[in-house]
Specification:
361 residues; alpha/beta; 8-stranded mixed beta sheet; globular
């Protein structure tokens, strides 16, 4: 069994960034969150290894082997100086629901707060099990902490709509001053694997494998403060519990080796990954009718606020095999995120294709 695992791991470790970049420029998908997968020829390699697994028992044993390796690679990619407990999960929303049920097991309705405009995947589970209130900004959050009893704060590191980074340090300082017993639950989806994570300023952090890292959909990672973990484990009547492997349940071996492959490649791309690629974008802006904004912390956007029928344009872009994420709100924008494995040539070609198609719609 160990031989099978080692052969698969050794083979995945030999895949280079150049192999991943092969012919990528012709069909570049800028939005990693929508893409959710590595290029097809890399996934074919993953599928080949899946065929070697013949029995459910092999699936479960290899699952455990790969989870241990994945956690080692995550700790290399995102070192945590605070020593939080790292768990692998088959769905961060499911994990949040479990955490909410554990909170509910305390037999008291708790008061949670979130900021306006956060992703509902972060706070939706808390609608059911807590008194959840939405505040407009950090100033209102400070007022809420000062004047009301708050048990938890749900906030993202990077806002998914505009790439703006929330000031988690300030939020943690406000929590420590006004509500020291409140927990901070942070959505790390947009910063995971491309930026240093603010481990010092949250108690529970969640991240998805399929966004910037282009791992398997449904896989994720949870970091939990050890004191909170002990408290959750001590509750009676909960539906599940943590173990050394995390929220596992099931095997999903293909997804695990896909995520393992993504982490391996992400580490090969180096920690200096340029999420904004400002120089290339500025060059593109000087020659294109489109103007991409480069002032966000995480990804770039094309504002569509002055364009009629923005969503209709987005639909036509999708038909042309291009993909930038459309954010449908009062200020419509196309969101552009760039895979870590894309070369400068891939990105330049992708911008040219995007400009040509948008300018001729």
């Amino acid at each position: 069994m160990a031989d099978i695992f080692q052969r698969i791991a050794d083979d995945l470790d030999t895949v280079s960034l150049d192999q991943v970049r092969h012919n990528l420029g012709g069909y570049i998908n800028f939005n990693v969150a929508n893409m959710g997968v590595l290029p097809k020829h890399v996934i074919d390699r993953v599928n080949y290894h899946k065929l070697q697994i013949k029995t459910p028992n092999q699936n479960y044993r290899l699952r455990d082997e790969f989870i241990v390796r994945i956690k080692q690679k995550i700790n290399t990619l995102c070192p945590d100086p605070t020593g939080k407990s790292l768990h692998v999960t088959y769905g961060t929303t499911l994990a949040l629901n479990i955490i909410c049920l554990m909170i509910k097991a305390q037999n008291k309705r708790q008061n949670f707060v979130t900021l306006l405009g956060e992703h509902d995947g972060l706070f939706a589970p808390f609608n059911e099990f807590t008194n959840l209130q939405v505040v407009e900004n950090i100033e209102r959050l400070q007022e809420k902490l000062r004047t009301s009893k708050v048990d938890g704060i749900c906030v993202s590191d990077i806002r998914y709509k505009n790439g703006v980074r929330n000031d988690l340090r300030l939020i943690a300082e406000l929590r420590d001053k006004y509500a020291p017993n409140a927990i901070i639950l942070a959505d790390l989806a947009q910063s995971f694997s491309i930026m240093d994570l603010p481990f010092e300023y949250f108690d529970i952090g969640i991240a998805s494998a399929h966004k910037w890292m282009a791992g398997a959909g449904g896989h994720g990672f949870i970091w939990i403060n050890s004191e909170i973990e002990k408290e959750l484990l001590s509750l009676k009547g909960t539906l599940t519990k943590f173990n050394e492997l995390g929220f596992v349940g099931g095997h999903d071996f293909k997804g695990l080796i896909e995520t393992y492959q993504a982490i391996t490649l992400r580490l090969k791309s180096g920690k200096g990954y340029k999420s904004g690629l400002i120089e290339q974008i500025n060059k593109f802006n000087s020659t294109s009718k489109l103007q991409i904004e480069t002032n966000s912390a995480c990804f770039n956007v094309i504002s569509m606020s002055n364009v009629e029928r923005a969503y209709e344009i987005y639909s036509k872009i999708i038909e042309k095999k291009l993909d930038v994420k459309f954010i449908n709100d009062s200020n419509p924008i196309f969101r552009i995120t760039i895979p870590y494995f894309a070369s400068d040539l891939d990105i330049s070609n992708g911008f040219d294709i995007l400009s040509e198609n948008l300018c001729h719609l």
